[in-house]
Structure formats: C-alpha cells, structure tokens
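Dig into what follows:
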Amino acid sequence: MSFVYAACSKISRLPLWEDLTNFANSINGSWCVGGDFNIISNVAERVGGSTPNFAAMNDFNTMISDCNLHDIGFYGSSFTWNRALLWQRLDRVLFNSKWISCFPMSHVEHLSRTISDHSPLLLSINASAALTSTAFTFQNMWLLDKSFKDIIFDNWQAPIFPDNNVKGMIRLWSKLCRLKQKLRWWNKTVFKNLFSNIKEAEVKVSELDKIYMENSSFDNSMALDEAKVRLFNLQAQEEAFWKQKAASKMIIEGDRNTKYFHAMVNKKRTMNHIHKIFNSDGSFFDTDDRIANSGVDYFKNIFNTDSITRPINDLSFIPCVINEEDNTALIMIPSDLEILNSRRRSPYKVFLPPAENRSTLPSPAENRCFPSSAENRSTLPSPAENRCLPSPAENRSTLPSPTENRCPFSPLPGEGREPDTMLTYFTRKPPELLGRDLKKKRRSSLWATL
C-alpha cells in the first residue's frame, strides 16, 4: 500500500507519475495506492471554476493505464475537495488487478469534511462475500461442445403432454422450462467443471509428451495430438466463459486473454456489490441480510399499492356555447360543391385573354418571349436574343424599360383590355407589376364586399 501527495503544478507532478510507473513494473504482488493526486481524471469530476487542464488529465490517465491500476468507485459525496464555488475529486484510491483478486470486496467511502477542505477517505477490506444462489444463465461455451446440439434436438422433439394437443405459448414455455433443467443436469454431469478439465488435460499432455520423447512411435504421436486438441478446445471454452462473464468485447494481443477477462470480472463484481444501502427513513444498513430485506420490502411497497379511486368523468358542469344545429354544421363533411367553390376563391388566378382574340391557350413552343424577327427561324434563338423585347427589336439600341420588358401575351391594364380578361403569367411578369395588379385586385374585391 502506497500513499501519495502530488504537487499542484503539472510539471512538478511528472516525476511522481514516472516513479509510480517504475514501481508498478517492479512488483508482482497486490498493490494499492491512494492519497491526494491534485488532478481529476475526467471533466465530470469538476464543477465550477475555469476550464480544466486537459494535458495534465491526459498525463494522469496515462500513468493509471501504464501502472495497470483501476478505480473501483466510491460511496458518499461526488467531490473530495472544495473551495468557494469550485468542487473537485482530487483524492482517490487505486488498485491493481491482483489486489482486486485477493480482496474483491474492497470499497472506498468519502467521509464528510470537518475543518479541512479535503474529505477523508475510508478504505474497507472484506475477505469474501457470502455465496448466494444464482439464476440460470446460458453459457456461450456450451456451443463449442459437440453433444450440445443433440441435447437441444432431443428436448425439442420430445412431447410435453401425453395427448400433445397443447399449442401456442404454453407449449413453448413448457419446453423451455424442461430444457433449462436438462442443461443444468448436462452441465453438472457431462460438461462438468471446466477448470478441473483444463488441469487434467494439461497434466495428460505433459505425461504424453514425456512418453513421446522416450518412444516416438506413431501411436504415441497420435495420442499426444489428441490430447493437445482436447486441451485447445477446453482453453477456447474457458476464453468464451470469461469473455461472457466480463461482458467485454475488447481483444488484447496474447494467448487466450483469460487473465484480462478474469481481471474484468473481478472489477465488475467489486463494483456491482452493494456494501451499504439507505432506508426510506434515512438510516443505512451494511450487513447482507438487512440489505436483502430492505430491497424486498422496497419492492413489496411498490407493487402492493392501495386501491385507487378514479374520478368520474362528469361533463355536466361544462356550459353549452353552441346549439345542436351549429355543432352538426361544424362536424359535417364538406360537399364537392363547397370544395369547388373554395378552389375558385383562391387568390392565385390565371386570367385568360378574350375569346375573340385567342380561342385556345398558346402551345409551349409559342409561349416564349421571342422577338418578332424569330418567327421564320428554324433553330432556337441564342441566349442573347431570348429576351422579352417588344417588336420590332431590330431598331432598338438600348434595353427596354421595365414597363416594356414584358411578354407579348401579357398586356398591361389600360391598353384596350380589362384586368379581369388579361392573360397573366406570374413567371413572365416583373415582380413590381405583379404586386401592383394584386393590390388593385384585392382593393376592388374589398369594395365589392362593402
């Protein structure tokens, strides 16, 4: 166990990080280091103040990774140091993998501050936790055994009830319950203890290797190869077991990664263990029996609720604002004539020319603002000629005014045609003329309604 008190500046802490790294690489046993590191590991451990120093945080996290240390969490306040409006977690206790393996129930508690601006840390070490019954869990390592598929097939083909007339979810549920019992029996009797099988396979490989060295016959070589194949399969099952147990998908370069997964399982077990629990009245329990009873009582109170009196939906106090005839008119589906009239009242209209001037709409080829000199052209005019110029355009030396720059099919009001009978194409007319025509149209409609 080591205790540290780090300096306040980033540069002054670097020698300490180097010494801790060298010490971690020189020891082989369990190790625990704690104290005031004067730095946070992430931004969530700081509230208030200016922006934290990310370079110093990176140096601290690098040291933790190089030393193979783990932070297993804590109980109590989230911060261990306070000054004015700044709160930080500067004090912590870190453990290596062997410490967690030897003392899996270790936990840290942040006590309340008295005079100092730092919170004292209390490290508790428990030798082991009480063994409890666990729920059924499907093991991925079973899939690597050849006899596993036969167990599944035989269980699924066997009938559940004598008449075999029960179908649906009841039949599926019954087969799953029977399969769970079969797998428990198969794991205990056939599959047996995986770790004992691995030790036996290692001993057998070692013995056959010695025999083969003395007598390198074909039979001894085949026996040695079979023993190695069995050991390889058992080691693959062990890796699948620890990988599922650790719930980690990380791959580490090495032989079987079992050491890494074992450390992850121990860390996960340590963090998931409940050391203390607060009751509804504010008191806390620290024994396993009282913690279990407190959890059972909590969920009993949730599901055993009192009878709920539902309010009666009485709408008599809501006053009637409209009569039945108006209500029927509001909820009535509109007729086809109303829909047609609503379309006719739309403010966006296309006015057609008088029937005496044009009986049909111009074709797409004619609906272009070409100069009159392009009538006899066999090809399309150039972009320079494709302008809405009044005819004739040959004698003009300057561009026309905005009033003249219009399509020949869109005459202005006051040129022998009424506004209601003019042909208006909104994409051809200048915006200022469109605005003027719309204002006149709305004004005339308003006076007509008055």
Notes: The chain has a mean pLDDT of 73. The chain has twelve helices and twelve strands. Residues 344-359+385-393+400-450 form one domain.
